[in-house]
Fold:
Amino acid sequence: MTKSRATILAALLLSASALAAQSGLLQLPINLSSNDSIQRMALPASVMLGARPNEVQIVDATGKAMQMAWLDNTAQAASVTTHAFAPYPILEKSANQAASNLRVVERNGTRTVEWQGTQNAPQPATSQVVGALLDTRNLPADWRASSIGLNADTAAGELQHIVIDTSSNLTDWQTVVSDAVITQLSLPNQTLSQSTVELPNINLHNQYLRISWHTPNAVKMHSANLIGSNQTAQTKHELVRIEPVKNSSNTSSSFGFGQTTHITGLELQSKTNGLVPVQVLGRSAPEAPWHPIASGTVFQLTQNGTTSVNGAFVFDATITELRIDALNNTKLPADLTASIRTQPKQLAFIHSGTPPYALHIGANPANIAPLNIAQLMPNYHTGDESALPFASVNASEQAALNHAPANKSYVLWAVLFAVVFLLAGMVWVILRQMRARG
Structure:
């Protein structure tokens, strides 16, 4: 009887262990784009968020893991460049000046921009600045601007609405940003500026860029930085909601990505009226020190019947953990939402098994290590992977996996312990029945 009990208990525990070892967190169908044996795939950021690299496999219909290699996205990340410009102040127009024509005037070595007056009309002297002009005509023809950072002073705590237009001749203007908000907040030890405005990947070759504000002298602009990349190097970024964990005092929240993640921006929003100064920090490993990567304000404010909210925090960082701190003895809004902008990771794989194939994220009982791309592709030369056909994950099957990496192991252990307790109860019932018979 003792041998029978031991056999039953061992079998049940082995079943529990097998269940825990084989329990994948997510398995999504893959659509191959051709019959090519090696294909690459962009992994949905919403699915990869929080997944460790060793949890990712490509499996066939039998569950066999396929050979794969991670592709390097750093070349595309490094293609982002910045161009600095000195702005020309745009002076306020008077009644005798046309509505849209501008001209650049140089006096005593200083360039300003005036509104073109009617023929033979004198130009009135004025120091009222209502905008700034950037001469961006010499930017490369294949370069696209995705954002502009303004080094500007504004009245502390006030919101300044700006409009951004482009023109090739200083007469015909096309609006690219109809309303953006910049602000500046003075703290005891620092000044926070919310002065980065996103642009719709515009071509500024042979163009002027105009930044205008409504109240004269409301903004004093010192310089401007246009940020963008070559058209051929541009990569689509995904917006993924995250759930940072707040501390007990609600002054800080943090989120772990489970792996090195390239982030190009952070959207923080609150529907609570008010203004909260924040600092965004990151680090590349749990033992590494935190370093600041952005700062600004989270706000929703209503002025003259118009509600304004803060824009995205635009930056470029490769980190494993993110932290948001409220500054100046404030607290984070209770309804604060956070979403990151990230570039999808890519991998290449050989489909040499039994179709269909699936992206498996979870336990890796086979413990198959990925190859490097030179091992995966015969006669590999740098850049060959860019010619590989793209496979895709079935979009209808995608599911957000917005958990901190530690949560995944907790879930697996919880499942294992639950199964063990359940099986222990079954063993207890069986043993009672055996005693009753014996």
Observations:
- The CA atoms of residues 147 and 198 lie 4 Å apart.
- The longest strand covers residues 252-269.
- The two ends are 9 Å apart (CA to CA).
